[in-house]
Amino acid sequence: MTDRGARAAELAANLARVEERIRRACEADGRARSEVTLVVVSKTYPAEDVRLLAGLGVREFAENRDQEAVEKAAACADLPLVWHFVGQLQTNKARSVAGYADYVHSVDRIKLVNALSAAVSRRERPSLNCLIQVALEKESGLGEGRGGAAPAEVGALARAIAEAPGLRLAGLMTVAPLTGALAGRPAAAFDRLIEISRDLRTTDPAATMVSAGMSADLEEAIAAGATHVRVGSAVLGVRPALG
């Protein structure tokens, strides 16, 4: 078997295991498998892996660094893919990200809302889907300096996105917190995100997307009601430690 063939077989086996985990989690919660979208986080892995996974039926991919993402999206431009940007985003990268991303999961401040709106307007592209990143640890007064908005800031950010030309409020995103009252309790953290989502939908009923859960905790996210799970290492393999 060629190296490419071996890698394709490895990815197929990994993907099958993840799909089975998602299927079982949906079944346990009485949800249809179609209610949960798998987004494969392809950061640090080559465009060739994206192509192999696309051949296995994966259509949604996520990146967290603009330079890598823009190159990978260009290399796979012939494929019918949906690109999600999930990393912390500086305003000076908004124009670049707006060129390839279909979804930005990490909107956490008004300044970034304005930068993305301006970028979309300049590129004369269809609307950009935005998710507010919720930092649940900030509800406990922790996590200052980390990305994400405090739960109390969600309403103001939602209004800003809804009013910004070229942007569409898609929903919310979170990462299970490492500090605060919900640290080490992903199920409780995701339940809290669903509560915030429910409140948001009273004023923004179309903001139905809930992006939560990764390789280690996708089952808890699905049980809570996540619509999208962001899975990297369980599909692509454990990433090497950065030097």
TrEMBL record:
<comment type="similarity">
    <text>Belongs to the pyridoxal phosphate-binding protein YggS/PROSC family.</text>
</comment>
<dbReference type="Pfam" id="PF01168">
    <property type="entry name" value="Ala_racemase_N"/>
</dbReference>
<feature type="modified residue" description="N6-(pyridoxal phosphate)lysine">
    <location>
        <position position="43"/>
    </location>
</feature>
<dbReference type="InterPro" id="IPR001608">
    <property type="entry name" value="Ala_racemase_N"/>
</dbReference>
<feature type="domain" description="Alanine racemase N-terminal">
    <location>
        <begin position="15"/>
        <end position="240"/>
    </location>
</feature>
<dbReference type="InterPro" id="IPR011078">
    <property type="entry name" value="PyrdxlP_homeostasis"/>
</dbReference>
<dbReference type="GO" id="GO:0030170">
    <property type="term" value="F:pyridoxal phosphate binding"/>
</dbReference>
<comment type="function">
    <text>Pyridoxal 5'-phosphate (PLP)-binding protein, which is involved in PLP homeostasis.</text>
</comment>
<keyword id="KW-0663">Pyridoxal phosphate</keyword>
<protein>
    <recommendedName>
        <fullName>Pyridoxal phosphate homeostasis protein</fullName>
    </recommendedName>
</protein>
<dbReference type="InterPro" id="IPR029066">
    <property type="entry name" value="PLP-binding_barrel"/>
</dbReference>
